[in-house]
Amino acid sequence: MTGEVVTRFAPSPTGFLHIGGARTALFNWLYAKHTGGKMLLRIEDTDRERSSQEAVDAILDGLRWLGLEWDGDPFSQFANAQRHRDVAMQLLEAGKAYYCYASQEELAEMREKARAEGRPPRYDGRWRDRDPSEAPEGVKPVIRIRAPQEGETLVHDMVQGDVRFPNKDLDDFIILRSDGTPTYMLAVVVDDHDMGVTHVIRGDDHLTNAARQTIIFRAMGWEVPKMAHIPLIHGPDGAKLSKRHGALGVEAYRAMGYLPEALRNYLARLGWSHGDDEIMSTEDMISWFEIEDVNKGAARFDFAKLEALNGHYIRMADDAYLVERFEALLPELEGKSDILAKLDEERRARLLAAMPGLKERAKTLVELIDNAAYLFAERPLDFDEKASTILTDEARAVLGRILPSLEGLGEWTVDALDGAVRTFAEAEGLKLGKVAQPLRAALTGRSTSPGVFDVLAVLGREESLARIRDCAS
């Protein structure tokens, strides 16, 4: 196969873009970018009852948020149904497929017999060589592929290696249902051929489908795309990924405060790696990515690793960029509408000034937003339990005694504030913590925050002094 590489991501719009689908999309995107090719997007919306426009929108939003832009317009599989039917009729006319009039009762009997004999249920080919003139009245036939019965079908897989399927196990599967709707097997093959897909990169749960789809490609005389079946993602305990492990939609990770570049980096390393490199820029990933380097074994999802990686990306991020992400996330978080309402130009500037201190302590944007709450708090502040414990009568008296030093300060800068507080502590014979802790509690309502001198500087003279006065005695 020569020419431009064309990959495709083909989700079903029956739910959100889940994390496994996001990684499949990423691997398709990386391979296309690495080879200078294209990634197409096909919405496999033939299941009309379960498909929804809401799910399509969520998939597109999730891909865009992750930065995985596709080439051209999204392609609807359902819209191509007539083309699928035409191909089924071509196969029928060429003798590569046939009408099957087996009733539901007959098929049920076949399944029961196979179960009793300990065999997997397979269609027994009873209409393979019969003439349609023998068809019972009133039965609408399906169309089945005339699959090879001897030998084996070989799938050359770029990840799994050569995988062999005995043809006796594949049976004459249905390509067109009795109501004229194409099956998934047929639709995928026709669409991949018509879209010029050269590489099919998908989960290894599709490996058996690859053998059946190869039979249709060959029956039509079409070139079989190169296949790469990537292992599924498991939880940390080795079990199949479930919601408790993190099998959530991409939008859930956005709402949990992960940065798209951190999630992209994490997903790239789930089942693929480049030496010991943990942190990879998008340019690095594109440059290094080879589909043959994907592991055969299942990858394990680890929230702790994702969180640590996200913390790194937050610390390295531009402060203005984090303010944008902060603001974009607020509408998705319960109970944060008051912060959004208060985010005027003055507070946005204050948030930007506070960001260097805030981002050092946060592993997610949600933590960052929580840690920034003091910037938006109204006086008198609500104190958490630990802050209330810190603000004893003795601590309040310390605040009362330091007030004159702060009120008389000429410059309200981090260095000047640091000097004034240290001078006061020495004069009082107190450890710095005995002054800094009550100040932090009074200024933020919490026992933890960015550096107390940073907090004082960001809040500014008037607001800082007002908050200290509220707690001083």
Automatic annotation (TrEMBL):
It holds the Pfam family Anticodon_2. It catalyses: tRNA(Glu) + L-glutamate + ATP = L-glutamyl-tRNA(Glu) + AMP + diphosphate. Residues 333-470 form the Aminoacyl-tRNA synthetase class I anticodon-binding domain. SUPFAM superfamilies: An anticodon-binding domain of class I aminoacyl-tRNA synthetases, Nucleotidylyl transferase. Residues 113-137 are annotated as: Disordered. Residues 113-133 have a biased composition (Basic and acidic residues). Keywords: Aminoacyl-tRNA synthetase, ATP-binding, Cytoplasm, Ligase, Nucleotide-binding, Protein biosynthesis. This is Glutamate--tRNA ligase. It comes from Oricola thermophila.
